[in-house]
Amino acid sequence: MPKLLVDQAVRTALAEDLGLAGDITTDPIIAPDAQGEATIVSRQPGVVAGLDLVEAAFKTLDPQSSVARVVDDGGKVESGGAIARVQARTRALLTGERTALNFLGRLSGIATLTPPMWRRSKARARACLHAQDDAGLTRLEKYAVRCGGGVNHRFGLYDAVLVKDNHIAAAGGLAAALERLRPRAGHMVKVEVEVDTLQQLEEALRFPINAVLLDNMDVETLKKAVTLAKGKVLTEASGGVNLETVGKIAAAGVDLISVGALTHSPRNLDSSLEWAPDR
C-alpha cells in the first residue's frame, strides 16, 4: 500500500480516538520516557494483512519505535502464534494498541475469508471484491483481498463504467444510456452492463460492451446466460454469493464472481497485544 494512504488512514483513526484531550488513562500513569515491548498474538488461525498500518500507528506516536514482523502480509498464522513484536515508548504502545489491532483485525479478517471463497469456486471463476466497501477503507480492504489471493473489481466510480438498472431507468432505456455514455468514455475504459433477466442480456449483447453483470440470477438462468454471452463478453455473477453458494455459481461457467461478502460478512481476526515482562 502507498505510504501516503497508510499514514492518512492511521492519522485519521488516531485523531478520532485521541480527540481533544489525548489518552487520559495512559498519560497520567506512564512516564514519558518509559520504554516497553509487546508481541501481537493471534487468538485464531488466519491470513495476516495490515501490518503497514500497525507499524504506522506506533511510528506516528513514537518515531523511534520498531515493529519486527514474524508473519508477513499474506502469510498464515496459527492460533496462539506471534504476528509481530513491537518496541516503543510505553505510552505509544498503550495509546496505539487499539488503532493498530483494529486495522489488523479488519483487514486480516477479509484476507482470511478470501481463500475459502476462492477454493470453493474450484478456480472455475475468479472471485473478486465488488465496490461495496466501507467508506474510507476501500483501498485498504481491496489490498486485504489481494493478500488473501483474490482479485479486485473496480475501485470506485472513476475507473470503470458499470451501467446499472437505475441508470437505464433514468436514461429512458439502455440504448439511450449507452448512446450518451460512449462519447464520454475513454478508449481505455471498460464498459459493463448490469442485467437481471435473459431478455435484458439479449438486449445488452447488441451493443459494443465488454462485460455483463448477471445480477441475482439462479444457477439455471446463469447457465443460459453464459451460453448466450459465450465468446462475446465477460460474464460476472453477483448477488447472494457466500461460502455455501459460490461453488454452484462457479459451476454455471461464469468468468467472474463478485463477492460483497468479503467486506460485509468477514469476522475480524481476533488478536491481542501481549505485554513482555521486564527484562
Automatic annotation (TrEMBL):
<keyword id="KW-0808">Transferase</keyword>
<feature type="domain" description="Quinolinate phosphoribosyl transferase C-terminal">
    <location>
        <begin position="134"/>
        <end position="273"/>
    </location>
</feature>
<dbReference type="GO" id="GO:0034213">
    <property type="term" value="P:quinolinate catabolic process"/>
</dbReference>
<dbReference type="InterPro" id="IPR027277">
    <property type="entry name" value="NadC/ModD"/>
</dbReference>
<protein>
    <recommendedName>
        <fullName>Probable nicotinate-nucleotide pyrophosphorylase [carboxylating]</fullName>
        <ecNumber>2.4.2.19</ecNumber>
    </recommendedName>
</protein>
<keyword id="KW-0328">Glycosyltransferase</keyword>
<comment type="subunit">
    <text>Hexamer formed by 3 homodimers.</text>
</comment>
<dbReference type="GO" id="GO:0009435">
    <property type="term" value="P:NAD+ biosynthetic process"/>
</dbReference>
<dbReference type="InterPro" id="IPR004393">
    <property type="entry name" value="NadC"/>
</dbReference>
<dbReference type="Pfam" id="PF01729">
    <property type="entry name" value="QRPTase_C"/>
</dbReference>
<feature type="domain" description="Quinolinate phosphoribosyl transferase N-terminal">
    <location>
        <begin position="23"/>
        <end position="108"/>
    </location>
</feature>
<dbReference type="Pfam" id="PF02749">
    <property type="entry name" value="QRPTase_N"/>
</dbReference>
<dbReference type="GO" id="GO:0004514">
    <property type="term" value="F:nicotinate-nucleotide diphosphorylase (carboxylating) activity"/>
</dbReference>
<comment type="similarity">
    <text>Belongs to the NadC/ModD family.</text>
</comment>
<comment type="function">
    <text>Involved in the catabolism of quinolinic acid (QA).</text>
</comment>
<dbReference type="InterPro" id="IPR002638">
    <property type="entry name" value="Quinolinate_PRibosylTrfase_C"/>
</dbReference>
<dbReference type="GO" id="GO:0005737">
    <property type="term" value="C:cytoplasm"/>
</dbReference>
<dbReference type="InterPro" id="IPR037128">
    <property type="entry name" value="Quinolinate_PRibosylTase_N_sf"/>
</dbReference>
<dbReference type="InterPro" id="IPR022412">
    <property type="entry name" value="Quinolinate_PRibosylTrfase_N"/>
</dbReference>
<comment type="pathway">
    <text>Cofactor biosynthesis; NAD(+) biosynthesis; nicotinate D-ribonucleotide from quinolinate: step 1/1.</text>
</comment>
<dbReference type="InterPro" id="IPR036068">
    <property type="entry name" value="Nicotinate_pribotase-like_C"/>
</dbReference>
<keyword id="KW-0662">Pyridine nucleotide biosynthesis</keyword>
<dbReference type="InterPro" id="IPR013785">
    <property type="entry name" value="Aldolase_TIM"/>
</dbReference>
